[in-house]
Specification:
Number of strands: 13
Largest sheet: 7 strands, mixed
CATH superfamily of the largest domain: Type I PLP-dependent aspartate aminotransferase-like (Major domain)
CATH class of the largest domain: Alpha Beta
Strand order of the largest sheet: 2-8-7-6-5-3-4
Number of domains: 2
CATH topology of the largest domain: Aspartate Aminotransferase, domain 2
Bound molecules: 4'-deoxy-4'-aminopyridoxal-5'-phosphate
Radius of gyration: 20 Å
Distance between the termini: 46 Å
Helix content: 25-40%
CATH architecture of the largest domain: 3-Layer(aba) Sandwich
Shape: globular
Length: 350
């Protein structure tokens, strides 16, 4: 840290994104991207005119995209907030609603801890149960911002909507943020509950189920009041945070929703096949409703599995730490990628 930086950032441990290798071509099962490209309509949307129009600023409201998402999710445009990836929303939400502190699980998306620290918010870290499930009663009556990834990452495990509702009811004066980055792979979305609970913010992304991690597009759905609060922060930092091409591609993606539903189905089928094969090899596989599996193998650490797979041209993610050190998180790729992954695992076990 230079002597010029504000000392409040001294304790900040920045988030470490999954590795983006440059040394050779790997099968990338480490950052929960989709193995399938966006639909052809997204490609067709990037016309010569769209490129020429890059000379102009984008619409800061991204209104056509907002309206399309509102229609898809059965809400109004005033209930939708759009940003440059959903990480941005998480940061805005922590800035806006974290005054009394923020609570999240010990094993969850690592970014929550970073943005709590970035915004100097006291963090209450609540351990998951021994089996990695989340005990919703730990979140009742906390009276502070609550952030829950549902389904959770890196475990892949969901909590049912009635538990989300109990948490909402018992924290009426603070915002409950439900991060649904992976909900399209078999989870139940809390979007309908936003009509009933003004303290609910549901956060989603185009990065996983919609195959557009590279476009950086995230959105949130909530009551008009909390969406307006988030807009205020966006307009106070970077109003043009979604570029023209991303807005056009995002709209084409929403208009081709069936394509994504189909991709999600394929990924779920591949996930179940991979989970069964790993169990057959003696692995522990947590029940996943996401596009990844959190797995461990007796006698091997997560790091050993990661290293063995890397040597065989396959990237996965491992997490150091007492409870997670024996696990790897494996993104579900195409069928042929998962065949290669399973062959590499068998090779390592032999
Ligand atoms: N939430 C969770 C649980 C995630 O795993 C991720 C992806 N790392 C994000 C949010 C952020 O996704 P993005 O910024 O690509 O929308």
């Amino acid at each position: 840290m230079s002597r010029f930086m504000h000392p409040r950032y001294a304790p900040l441990d920045a988030y470490v994104p999954g590795e983006q290798p440059r040394d050779k071509k790997y099968i990338k099962l480490n950052t929960n991207e989709s193995p399938y490209p966006p639909p052809p309509a997204v490609c067709q949307a990037v016309t010569r005119q769209a490129i020429d129009d890059l000379r102009l600023y984008p619409d800061p409201d991204a209104l056509p995209l907002k309206k399309a998402l509102a229609e898809l999710y059965g809400v109004e445009a005033e209930n939708v907030f759009l940003t440059n990836g959903s990480d941005d929303i998480l940061n805005f939400a922590f800035m806006a609603f974290g005054e009394k502190g923020v609570a999240f699980a010990d094993i969850t998306y690592g970014f929550y801890k970073v943005i709590a620290s970035l915004n100097c918010l006291p963090a209450q870290v609540i351990p998951l149960k021994e089996d990695f499930s989340l005990d919703y009663t730990d979140y009742l009556g906390l009276n502070k911002l609550i952030a829950i990834a549902n389904p959770n990452a890196p475990t892949g495990m969901p909590i049912p909507l009635w538990q989300v509702e109990e948490i909402l009811k018992s924290n009426p004066d603070s915002v409950v943020l439900i991060d649904e980055a992976y909900v399209d792979f078999g989870g139940d979305s809390a979007v309908e509950l936003t009509k009933k609970y003004e303290n609910l913010l549901v956060v989603m992304t185009f990065s996983k189920s919609r195959s557009m991690a590279g476009a950086r597009l995230g959105f949130a759905i909530g009551s008009a009041e909390i969406i307006a609060d988030l807009e205020k922060l966006k307009y106070s930092t970077n109003p043009y945070n979604i570029d023209r091409l991303t807005q056009i591609c995002g709209l084409a993606a929403v208009e081709n929703n069936d394509y994504f539903i189909d991709c999600c189905r394929k990924i779920q089928t591949t996930r179940e096949r991979t989970a069964a094969a790993l169990k057959g090899l003696g692995f522990t596989v947590l029940p996943s409703k996401t596009n990844f599996l959190f797995v461990s193998c007796p006698g091997k650490t997560g790091e050993q599995l990661y290293t063995g797979l890397r040597q065989r041209g396959i990237l996965v993610r491992y997490f150091s730490g007492e409870r997670t050190g024996n696990f790897i998180r494996v993104t579900i790729g195409s069928d042929s990628e998962m065949d290669a992954f399973l062959a590499a695992i068998k090779d390592i076990l032999n």
